[in-house]
Design goal:
The complex is a heterodimer of chains A (759) and B (772). Chain A is α+β, with helices and mostly antiparallel strands and 759 residues long. Helices cover 42% and strands 12% of the residues of chain A. Chain A folds into 2 domains: 97-321 and 589-749, no CATH class; 352-554, Trefoil (Acidic Fibroblast Growth Factor, subunit A), CATH 2.80.10.50. Chain A has helices at residues 43-51, 72-90, 103-114, 126-137, 158-182, 187-198, 201-207, 213-236, 241-260, 264-284, 290-322, 335-338, 487-490, 564-580, 618-643, 652-672, 688-705, 711-737, 743-748, and strands at residues 349-350, 358-363, 370-377, 385-390, 399-403, 428-433, 438-443, 455-461, 474-480, 498-503, 509-516, 525-530, 540-546, 556-557, 602-607, 610-614. In chain A, helix 5 runs antiparallel to helix 6, helix 6 (187-198) packs antiparallel against helix 17 and helix 6 (187-198) runs parallel beside helix 18 (711-737). Chain A is elongated and about 105 Å long. Chain B contains 22 helices and 14 strands. In chain B, strands 1, 2, 3, 4, 5, 6, 7, 8, 9, 10, 11 and 12 form a 12-stranded antiparallel β-sheet that branches. In chain B, strands 13-14 form a two-stranded antiparallel ribbon. The chains are: A alpha+beta (759), B alpha+beta (772). Chain A: This is Dolichyl-phosphate-mannose--protein mannosyltransferase.
Chain lengths: 759, 772
């Protein structure tokens, strides 16, 4: 499954070349593993060794880095390919000069980075940071709003921004070449592969715009390349400097993939499974001592788990450092988080809450804001004054705490005179709305929106001179305090204590949830009194607090600003929830079953009878799918044959190509099948990482099928394939570049009825 | 993971190297342990004797009946899903067609039990808490069926373990896990389907194990018998609930492993031999179950011959097979110039139009055609009347005036004298769909846009269009969109009526309409003629397979559609740990309640056993990879193949639920729980002893004699199992008021029985102490 090919080899040093490496302990194994003579290699194996760069003995280092030994000629060839690729990818990059498809989002995010306004997106930051960097260097001021597809750019260095995905898109091409070479494919195959990728219309279209998939594919390709290089090093000799270097780079690159999009987790899974396969092989090699095995294990755990995580976190650190000011993403985050953003700070406030305190009360679980009332009445139920949650600071959020037991009807009690009376658990209080002189009230009416039996309406009720009734009474139940403030468990303390308010008569809890009131409630959040309240949604805390008897010397508190780790974790949770919530249908979404068949594309941009439509190069695409199916079929047949006693796996060619194709197949499968489990909206471009592996697989199949031909013949076959691929590319290129097309040509290009361009 | 396959072990290179001196010949049986044979002690002989075994199984079964029939008449009210399944039983008795997502076998059995007990079907099980005694429903007879089947599951579980070669004590342990389980008891004392499902599932496993034990006597009568029995029981399992598919997967996995071994060249079988085995299994485990499964539906249709609540789910062709169906009463052929009302199949609104026009500009800034509004309206109104206008020359009289499939027609809105029209203007609510409007009758400029093709669903060419039964789609000729509506309502300017627009998806199933009523014909006389002579028609015949196919498809669709949230639905991850149960029934007068929850001791034991199993397997794999073979071969084979089958069974009956989006309940775990109880027995045996009874397969005439091994489980194991049973019993008794719904509990007692804080019991006392 890994990129290793020779089957009978033990995992550590190549046989017969072990001079640089001390032979393994011999004592008990001499019988079982008689030492093979050094010149045991037969002609085949010797040639294979040579192709890996294992030269004649005596030289200190006998393997080219990563098992890559390219001649000067090949490097020159590669240069030519890169130039072609750059031409294809960057041709008229400035057109169209208006917003295309998801540039709406990713362009907007770049603006927000530049204006340092906090936002929340479902994707990790790396790719967006790269795009921002390009925009920043070219002097973008962040003042364009990327509002609609088709909006013409003004004062936006959009070409520079598009250069980022385009450059990374070009960089995939040499990586393809080198990966195939490192996988011991022939130069012709590698050339074929790199040109297939070059002329893949889908990848071209995707890399020409400000989108995240091109960086994602680049890092996926980079990871694959580095991992294959590492495998080659590992087979040669583990724990050399080179070995560590390749392994660490693989880890960093893994971190980069997953920092572009979470889809990168599939790349991690691919490398993970390949690693497990390596370790399993090592475990079966009884010459590897448990100690040595642990060393192998720890090295991989360190570089392939710890390093990517650190890299990923570093990206978020940069993200937080740049986005230091409040923006439209605030509402997703907790209050503590919000207070780390510029423009969201708050003055210190008194810690001790007592009878007579004027407070503002916030809801813990939703970002609905403060317990609020205003001089408008409910149109339903009791028709009394509205109680809502309001997200902004306002004098209408101020409440006065009144003792409901001792001063009920006793106007002589004055908190300014008596001693400070703290709010202890199960204290009965009333909350008086200062601006309107009404009290927080609940009764047996159904709330306006959540019209169910177990919820009561909450209103503000009262009149000047009227002391109120028992339906104004609430019992404070302290739910928990702060670990560092022991007092906050015993009595109400600003910011530190989370509490519930139980209605004395109805037994229901003051409650709020993410349900908005209609227009008459100014679309503020509904507040009810719930008899079956979910605990999380009935928790409240006090944000600001003043009391006539507390002077400046009294203890003050403020939000504890969360550290990086808690901010990081909070944002991950928010991203996860937002991502899972993306379940709306989109007119161009598609399900995974349609991707390998290329049943439908995505309309990116239409204007003035020109169109950009994301669709692949059908020849390359279908060939890759064919290769995947062929490998699965042949491999199944081989397993059946093995069970019936055929010795196919004694053939070194079968073994080599099985390992090679097996690795690529696994890469394809792990980047494809998990999408079936996702119920969020999916698009054709989600298939691209899998497509990359499938194209490599089709090249490996080409290598196998032409392995017995003479090089010249092989080259001719490759040339024919390329000509066909390039012809199809040219045929569909107007869709990729958005260049003008006649109606007839357009209709002719509709090879499948389901391709819905031209409308 | 077939049971006990003692074929040659596939040796890894390391072990073969250590055994280099042995002959490389393929031996059928390993003889390495022949020296370790220990004859069974007197205690073991006594414990394993037939007499003991019969006594044990007899006692267990008796206890099972006792526990399940104890106060089975209480409560004498409708509990939880008895609402559904009791109702279905009543429908069987009355022969009225109904629709449900579950296959019919279990409900047929309930219906039969009801019929046997003398139930006349005249009780409608409307609400939880309705009294049975007041309505003279012989509910005890109906409840007795699941109770009996669940009681019989206990000896089957015992027998599975016994046949798998575990000692009596272990078999009793597994049986006790099911016997003393509150969840099984609660579920089987009511008119529900799960007891039947679990019963047939355990029978399937039993039959398959018997079959596997006969593998050296292949193609004998007995071998065929058990193989066929497996197939039949599989069909019965599937016939109870779709969950039976998971049992199919379990047996399927075992069969694949089995066939794979037969295919192995080292066994020396010819391909012809392999194909014989393959065909035998294909016939017995696929063809026969399918036929049996079909037969349930055949009976289902045969019994339910009359029109009932399920009619509307079915296609018109199907409905016409039901006696007394509306279709048979008044389905008339439609002719041109008839005036009709047209109704949407899914949302039941009429195609409607009125004089008001679309506003020029919508809130989101898009522009309309300002044409006359076409909406969906739920009530009867003359604005729902449409006249069918031909687009071809008609004969003066006769059959030529009938409207047929694929005719191109115009629809004339009678009260505003305008033709229905659609055009390439975005609809008010959906920018991707076309707006529908009307165009004055005498203005010919837009004639083309008023042409619609009538497309009758699943109709042969030339089929006549009928009221009620002729479900159709109306396809706009120039733009190919179909007339469609969806439950979203338009704003106030359209009086909150439903939006109608043109859907571009030609395959959209919800674009189906039908003619609800014939209002008037061209000539009064003709109209009277046609509407008056409505005789009740005889039900038509429809091919059984068509009926089956339609129903099966509907069941699957509706099953997937059960996604509404339910207060007691739970996530599968909670199930093995009993995080939350289901409140089946409450009675506030006596503070009685039935709360469906398992026996914590038993369920957690099962969960622990499964994790131990995974641990052992992992350790074994690692050890063998390093050339160490810590477990004797017979024990290892039993662990892998037999316990493996149970664990695979558990996994297949559990994990697929994670992929389902429909509402899930704790009782969906019951089949998996039985499998985990079996696995727990196997694991307990492995933990207590390094021996098993071996061999257990029946010897064929070509089979070589095998070295024997006997389990050495002694009195200690017995003591352990007795202690465990005691613990289970205590727990069972402690929470039994929740299981049996009697006696009532006061608030304090309820609080005490709330063993996990996540259980939502009713009548709990208010917390009075102040701790958090």
């Amino acid at each position: 499954m890994s990129g290793s090919f020779r089957a009978r080899r033990p995992a550590s040093p190549p046989l017969g070349l072990a001079h640089a490496h001390p032979p393994p302990p011999q004592q008990n194994h001499s019988q079982r593993f008689p030492q093979r003579r050094e010149d045991h290699l037969d002609a085949d194996e010797r040639r294979e060794m040579a192709s890996l760069g294992f030269g004649p003995r005596g030289r200190a280092r006998t393997i080219a880095p990563g098992g890559l030994s390219l001649t000067i000629g090949e490097w020159r060839l590669l240069l030519v390919v890169v130039v072609i690729a750059a031409g294809v990818r960057m041709f008229r990059l400035s057109r169209p000069n208006s917003v295309v498809f998801d540039e709406v989002h990713f362009g907007k995010f770049a603006s927000k980075y530049i204006k340092t306004r906090y936002y929340v997106d479902v994707h990790p930051p790396l790719a967006k940071l790269l795009i921002t960097l390009a925009a920043f260097v070219s002097g973008y001021d962040g003042n364009f709003d990327f509002k609609d597809i088709g909006k013409v750019y003004e004062n936006v260095p959009y070409v520079a921004m598009r250069m980022v995905p385009a450059t990374l898109g070009v960089a995939v091409i040499p990586l393809t070449y080198l990966t195939l070479r490192a996988l011991e494919c022939r130069a012709t195959t590698a050339l074929l592969g790199s040109l297939f990728i070059t002329f893949e219309n889908g990848l071209i279209t995707q890399s020409r715009h400000i989108l995240l998939d091109s960086p994602l594919i680049f890092f996926t390709a980079l990871t694959t390349f580095l991992w294959v290089g590492f495998t080659n090093e590992d087979r040669h000799k583990p724990f050399t400097e080179q070995w560590w270097l390749w392994l660490t780079l693989t880890g960093l690159s893994l971190g980069a993939v997953v920092s572009c999009k979470w889809v990168g987790l599939f790349t991690i899974a691919t490398v993970g499974f390949a690693t497990l396969h390596q370790l399993w092989t090592l475990l079966g090699d009884l010459r590897v001592t448990p100690r040595l095995f642990m060393k192998h294990f720890m090295a991989r755990a360190l570089c392939l788990i710890v390093v990517p995580i650190l890299f990923y976190m570093a990206m978020f650190e940069i993200h937080f450092l740049i986005l230091e000011n409040s923006g439209d993403g605030d509402g997703f985050m907790s209050s503590e988080f919000q207070h780390t953003l510029g423009g969201r700070g708050m003055q210190d406030t008194f810690a001790d809450v007592a009878i007579g305190s004027t407070v503002t009360i916030r809801h813990v679980n939703t970002q609905g804001g403060y317990l609020h009332s205003h001089a408008h009445n409910f149109p339903t139920g009791s028709k009394q004054q509205q109680i809502t949650l309001y997200p902004h600071r306002d004098a209408n959020n101020n409440w006065l705490i009144i003792n409901a037991t001792s001063d009920n009807g006793d106007p002589s009690y004055d908190p300014e005179i008596g001693p400070l009376e703290y709010i202890r658990p199960f204290a009965q209080i009333k909350l008086q709305h200062l601006a309107t002189d009404k009290r927080l009230h609940s009764h047996d009416f159904r709330p306006p929106v959540s019209d169910v039996d177990f919820q009561n309406e909450v209103s503000a009720y009262g009149a000047p001179g009227f002391a109120g009734d028992a339906n104004d009474n609430w019992i404070v139940e302290i739910e928990g305090g702060d670990r560092r403030d022991r007092e906050s468990w015993k009595r109400l303390r600003t910011l530190r204590t989370h509490f519930r308010l139980r209605h004395t008569l109805q037994g229901c809890y003051l409650f709020s949830h993410k349900i908005k009131l209609p227009e008459w409630g100014f679309e503020q959040q509904e507040v009810t009194c719930n008899k079956n309240a979910v605990k999380a949604n009935s928790l409240w805390y006090i944000e600001t607090n003043t009391h006539p008897k507390l002077d400046d010397n009294a203890q003050k508190v403020n939000y504890r600003l969360p550290g990086f780790l808690s901010k990081f974790l909070e944002l991950q949770a928010v991203m996860w929830r937002t991502n899972a919530g993306l379940t709306d249908r989109h007119i161009f979404d598609s399900r995974p079953t349609s991707w390998p068949r290329l049943r439908r594309g995505i309309n990116f941009w239409v204007k003035d009878h020109r169109q950009i439509y994301l669709v692949g190069n059908p020849v390359v695409w279908w060939l890759s799918t064919l290769a995947v199916l062929a490998y699965a079929g042949v491999r199944g047949l081989l397993i059946l044959r093995a069970q019936r006693g055929f010795r196919d796996f004694n053939n070194s060619k079968v073994v080599k190509y099985d390992a090679l194709c097996g690795f690529l197949f696994m890469g394809w499968a792990l980047h494809y099948f998990p999408f079936y489990l996702m119920s969020r909206q999916l698009f054709l471009h989600h298939y691209f990482p899998a497509l990359y592996f499938a194209i490599l697989l089709s090249c490996a199949c080409f290598d196998l099928l032409t392995s017995s031909f003479r090089p010249r013949v092989r080259f001719y076959i490759a040339a024919v394939l390329l000509v066909v691929a390039i012809w199809t590319f040219a045929h569909f290129s107007p869709l990729a570049y958005g260049s003008p097309w006649t109606k007839a040509q357009c209709e002719k290009a509709k090879w499948l009825k389901t391709w819905d361009f031209s409308w | 993971m077939s049971s006990a396959s003692e074929g040659p072990r596939r040796r890894n290179p390391a072990s073969s190297a250590s055994r280099a001196t042995q002959s490389p010949d393929v031996e059928l049986f390993d003889d390495r342990h022949s020296t370790s044979y220990i004859p069974p002690g007197a205690w073991q002989v006594a414990a394993e004797s037939n007499k003991t075994s019969m006594a044990v199984v007899g006692a267990l079964t008796a206890a099972a009946f006792l526990l399940r029939f104890y106060k089975i008449n209480l409560p004498d009210q409708v509990v939880f899903d008895e609402v559904h399944f009791g109702k279905f039983a009543a429908f069987y008795i009355k022969g009225e067609y109904y629709f449900d997502v579950h296959p019919p076998l279990a409900k047929l059995l309930l219906g039969a039990a009801g019929w046997f007990a003398g139930f006349d079907g005249n009780f409608d099980f409307e609400n939880i808490g309705d009294s049975y005694t007041d309505h003279h429903v012989p509910y005890v007879g109906m409840r007795a069926l699941p109770a009996t089947l669940n009681s019989l599951t206990i000896p089957i579980v015992y027998a599975i373990m016994k046949e798998s070669g575990y000692p009596t004590v272990i078999a009793a342990f597994s049986a006790i896990l099911v016997l003393l389980d509150n969840a099984h008891i609660a579920q089987s004392r009511l008119i529900l389907l799960d007891a039947q499902l679990v019963f047939f599932m355990s029978l399937t496993i039993y039959a398959y194990i018997r079959f596997r034990k006969l593998r050296y006597l292949e193609f004998t009568t007995e071998w065929w018998g058990w193989l066929t029995a497996t197939g039949v029981f599989l069909a019965c399992t599937l016939g109870c609930k779709m969950v039976g598919l998971f049992t199919f997967l379990t047996i399927g996995a075992a069969v694949i492993v089995d066939l794979w071994d037969i295919l192995d060249i080292k066994k020396g079988h010819s391909m012809e031999h392999f194909w014989r085995h393959f065909m035998a299994r294909a016939i017995s485990l696929i063809v026969i179950p399918f036929i049996v499964y079909l037969s349930f539906f055949w009976i289902h249709f045969a019994v339910l011959s009359r029109s009932g609540t399920g009619d509307t789910f079915m296609s018109p062709a199907f409905q016409e097979t039901l006696r007394g169906n509306e279709m048979l009463l008044n389905s008339q052929e439609l002719r041109y110039y008839d005036i009709v009302t047209i109704k949407h199949k899914d949302t039941k609104v009429f195609l409607h139009s009125h004089i008001e026009r679309y506003p020029l500009k919508y809130d989101d800034g898009r522009i309309s055609s300002q044409g006359q509004q076409v909406t969906g309206y739920a009530h009867n109104d003359t604005n729902n009347h449409w006249q069918i206008i031909p687009t071809k020359a008609l004969p003066a009289t006769g059959r030529g005036r009938i409207v047929r499939h694929e005719d191109v027609i115009q629809l004339l809105h009678v009260s505003t004298k305008s033709h229905l029209l659609t055009h390439d203007v975005a609809s008010p609510l959906m920018a991707t769909n076309q707006e529908f409007t009307t165009w004055p009758k005498d203005d010919d400029t837009r004639h083309n846009d008023t042409l619609f093709q009538l497309h009758l669903n699943d109709a042969p060419e030339g089929q006549a269009w009928k009221t009620k039964s002729g479900h159709f789609r109306l396809i706009h000729v120039p733009t190919r969109v179909s007339l469609w509506t969806h439950p979203k309502t338009l704003p106030d300017w359209a009086f909150k009526q439903q939006e109608i627009n043109g859907n571009k998806n030609a395959q959209e199933r919800s674009a189906t309409w039908f003619v609800d009523q014939l209002i008037a014909a061209e000539e009064e006389e003709d109209f009277l003629n046609r509407t008056s002579k409505v005789a009740v028609a005889e039900p038509k015949k429809l091919n059984f397979f068509k009926k089956f196919g339609e129903l099966q498809l509907l069941m699957l669709q509706h099953n997937a559609g059960l996604t509404a949230s339910h207060p007691y639905a739970s996530n599968p991850i909670n199930w093995p740990f009993l995080i939350s149960g289901i409140s089946f029934w409450t009675q506030s007068t006596d503070q009685k309640q039935i709360y469906f929850i398992g026996n914590i001791v038993g369920w957690w034991t099962c969960a622990v056993a499964l994790s131990i199993f995974v641990g052992i397997i992992g350790a074994d794999l690692l050890a063998r990879r390093r050339g160490v073979e810590p477990i004797p071969d017979p024990v290892r084979n039993r662990l892998w193949n037999n316990a493996g089958l149970f664990v695979i069974g558990w996994a297949f009956h559990y994990f697929p639920f994670f992929l389902m989006n429909r509402q899930l309940f704790l009782h969906h775990y019951l089949p998996a729980h039985v499998c985990s109880a079996l696995a727990a027995g196997a694991v307990l045996n492995f933990v207590l002893s390094e021996t098993i009874n071996y061999p257990i397969s029946i010897r064929g005439h070509l089979t070589r004699a095998k070295p024997k091994m006997h389990s050495d489980l002694g009195p200690k194991a017995l003591a352990f199992v007795i202690a465990f049973a005691l613990a289970m019993t205590l727990m069972l008794v402690y929470i039994s008021p929740l299981t049996y719904g009697t006696p009532g509990l006061d608030g304090e007692a309820v609080n005490h029985r709330r063993l996990l804080s996540t259980w939502t019991l009713h009548f709990a006392a208010k917390k009075t102490d102040q701790t958090v």
